Amino acid sequence: MPRRVKDFIDISEYTSLDDLIRYLETIRDNLPAEHQAELKIRGDDVFGRRLTISYFREQTLDEVELESKYAGDDDERASIEQLRRKLDEVPYRMGKSKSG
C-alpha cells in the first residue's frame, strides 16, 4: 500500500487578487481526497514572501518503485540497529592531546 507524502504549491507575492482567487479555487477543486491542505505565508523581507499550500497525496507509481528500490528491507534495518547498539556500548576514553 503506498504511503502518503506531503506536497507543496508556492504562489509568489506578485499575484493579482482575482488571479489568486481563481488559482486557489482551481487548486482546491483538484486536491485529492483527504488532502488536509494548509495555507501559510512564508519567506521574509529580503527574499520575498509567498503563499505556500501544503497537502497530502498518495505516492505515484514511480515514487513507490523508487522507494522500494532504495529502501532496505526490515532485516537490513534490524542489523543496522544492532550495529548502532554495539557501537553505543564501546567505551570512549579521552586521550592526551599531542600539543603542549
Walk me through the structure:
- This protein has about 100 residues and is α+β, with helices and mostly antiparallel strands.
- It has two domains: about 1-60, Ribosomal protein L5 (50s Ribosomal Protein L5, Chain: A, 2-Layer Sandwich), CATH 3.30.1440; about 60-90, no CATH class.
- About 40% of the residues lie in helices and about 25% in strands.
- It has three helices and three strands, in the order βαββαα.
- It has helices spanning about 15-30, 60-70, 75-90, and strands at about 5-10, 40-45, 50-60.
- The protein has a three-stranded antiparallel beta sheet, with no helix packed on it.
- β2 and β3 form a beta hairpin.
- The protein is elongated and about 65 Å long.
- The mean pLDDT is about 80.
Mean pLDDT: 81
Beta strand count: 3
**Helix count from the secondary structure assignment:** 3
**Beta-strand content estimate:** 25-35%
Low-confidence stretches: none
Question: Helix/strand-derived class?
Answer: alpha+beta
Summarize the entry for a quick read:
This protein has helices at about 15-30, 60-70, 75-90; strands at about 5-10, 40-45, 50-60.
Question: What's the topology here?
Answer:
Layout: E1 4-12, H1 17-30, E2 38-44, E3 48-58, H2 61-70, H3 74-89
Antiparallel strand pairs: 1-3, 2-3
